[in-house]
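Example 3.
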Amino acid sequence: MSRYSADEIEAKWQEAWDKAGIFRATRSADKPKYYVLEMFPYPSGRIHMGHVRNYTMGDVIARYKLSTGHNVLHPMGWDAFGMPAENAAMASGGHPKDWTYGNIATMKDQMKPLGLSIDWSREFATCDPEYYGQQQALFLDFLEQDLVYRKNAVVNWDPVDMTVLANEQVIDGKGWRSGAAVERRELTQWFFKISDMAGELLDALDGLENWPAKVRLMQENWIGKSRGLEFSFDRTDGEDPITVYTTRPDTLLGASFVGISPDHPIAKALEADNPELAAFVAECRKGGTTEEAIETGEKLGYDTGITVKHPLDPTWELPVWIANFILMDYGTGAIFACPAHDQRDLDFCRKYGLPVVDTFYDIDDPKPVENEAFVPPKTEKVKWINHFAGLDEATGQEAIDATIAYAEENGWGKGVTNYRLRDWGLSRQRYWGCPIPVVHCGDCGVVPEKKENLPIALPYDEGGKPIDFSIPGNPLDRHPTWRDCACPSCGKPATRETDTMDTFVDSSWYFARFTAPRAETPTVMEDAAYWMNVDQYIGGIEHAILHLLYSRFFARAMHICGHLPESAIEPFDALFTQGMVTHAIYQTPGANGRPVYHYPEDVELKDGKVVTKDGTEVEVIPSAKMSKSKNNVVDPVSIINAFGADTARWFVLSDSPPERDVEWTAAGAEAAFKHLSRVYRIASDIADSDTGPQADDNDLLREMHKTIHDVTGGVESFGFNAAIAKLYAFTNALAKSKAGAVAKKQAAKALAQLMAPMTPHLAEEVWSMLGGDGLVANAPWPVADEKMLIDDTVTLPVQVNGKRRAEISVPKDMDKAEVEKIALSVEAVQRALDGATPKKVIVVPGRIVNVVI
RNA sequence: GCGGGCGUGAUGGAAUGGUAGACAUACCAGACUUAAAAUCUGUUGGGCCUUGUGCCCGUGUGGGUUCGAGUCCCACCGCCCGCACCA
């Protein structure tokens, strides 16, 4: 008897699959299509366990669908543009292009041994000019359809390095390299008009039934539809009125002040001749651009000295303040503050000594607001103190509606639907991205490049020398010749746009490109119509909002430009978000108070304690995200070398539900390997022996059919860990079974088939060992015999007042009255009743009996 | 700060509102072995006693709905994800 040798088996079957070409996707009318896609990787340099988990899940689905008679498309590519390539060039020389393609080659070599059922003939990287040239064509089409425009927007500006910083390069308000305090600065940038589609993107969420509810909810909140009132405050100095937007117009009588954004035109106008105010606004512009930084930062205000009249009472004057928490991008950039019913406004008013006016009270506990704003749900009835629309007791929502109606009737305001969703700024002042294909001409202005000039390719050198990435700023901007071009419109000398596109653009249509990856146009209609939509999309929850929302926008925009059929405007039919792979961190206290991190292989278990080689006790932090800096990364390559790909695949599927994080443990990986070795051993024993005691055939086959049923259900519902638990149980049953050789062979073949999506190499080996026909990858998925799933008798727990007191065994379809009689006759039940008469007996057929006394 | 999620034995986890802890790890005990490894078998949520088809407690904490709650509702605590230039 031979031993399980993953090395030999895996190489052998990968070659067999290649030779048979079974993973190559081709259009055909005779089978239903199935498109399964995992979010493509960023080529960081090495694959990690998260990749293994993500792609194994997709592979399980792909292989399962292949064996249920589908024409499967399962492609792979590389999300290859982005900052790390430039950072690497900055840190250690070299070129982003070389670094990226080198990483892709390495990672592909690392992925291949996993035995994924990928159609590699469709592979591409987003930094291939063939890909980003088509992306430039899309941009030009979007421009023509008025889906892109230019406007000013703020960026993080490092005043020392004189460069734009990404949010992650701003640490505590300071530039990551220079350490200088970051400022917010305006630049003219390109925007996709995603906000025009806000309502549509919101409404269409309802149709995404196979998306996790939490993702739909997150998108809904992100789009942030609100109904509010837009109206103006007249200025007492007679200047133009200040228009505000509010979602709580019902609290207008609780107004304390009018607040404007530091970027509001009024603030900008005042800056010119008020140095103190200018200094305040400059202070407001310090720090990063993230919403988090703005929301958590100290709330600052400045009294402009301007006053306005309350729209309901011309004698009531309100001061106008500049406040740093008011965003110019949302609403009109101006608000009125009602401190009694908004905690942020209240804190602000207490800080600056502004009045607090109550407008409604809790019905049961009417009392004025002190230091805690009264903010009940809008659906809760409250007691109005004095409402201009004549309300006494009403919910917030009723009051809002009444107020809008009142304002519209009286002509001083109008109901407005607003969205929190902002337009998508796509300009990046960086080298390693897709160049934006427009030209700036002194005479013609901004001119789109001609499609025949695409791709506008990135330059590799500058003036014959390698580009120097150690200088801060955009190399395209300072390149000696790359900018120079002829105006596509008038032919005069002009300059290219030097901004490149946000990498989210690259990932917003790659799924469509996979349907025709070598085409001379972004997509080919017949291919897109055949393969789209993605039937199952799999990726991390961290992409719940931006990537997925941008992709939904892009699919719509591509449809408008004729690059996708209307049926593909929601590109992902089903979405699954998987958890991370985590690993314990082993740390000991270091000399400077900072922890010292130890590699898993450098610690050992001794007398129930984890210690380093020299015996120091180690603190174990479980379930931490794998991170190179914490030394808790497990390299899939070493796992594959030690145990084989099937073990790695089996483990990442087995130990946790797929949507949750899974903790990598060495013990778990070893256990997976042991189990696969056991399956191999059991199967080869069965293959070798064709005689043996004959009994219990039916028990084993019954078990087999139950396992087929449960595993099929598990695979279809992403219950991989539960499916694997059933496979463990079935393996145990098979090992102990006294059934005859024929039945055992049948059961072992079923086991091979059921394991095939998860451990495809071992499954092929077992299948062929047992004389299976052809490749197990091609074999039709087994179908459970319904008749074998039903037991004739069922065991019912009997509860007394919800506590389990006994168990009865009854025929599965015995009627309720009979079950009740038997349950009550059980001695343990009688003892629990202790003479009491049952008030009620609940019999749930096939489930439970509950006697209530 | 705002939005979303998660929390069950020593550990990973299972459980259409219906027997909490399936399956696995770890530990312990046994078989095989000169020994070890490998393999096989068995035990294991906590407590109590009268050792039973026994009783009590038990799914982050505190309340609630229900004949019945890990599951549904409310509040709190802790951790994780996202916050528009990380991918």
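DSSP finds 26 helices and 38 strands in chain A. The radius of gyration of chain A is 33 Å.
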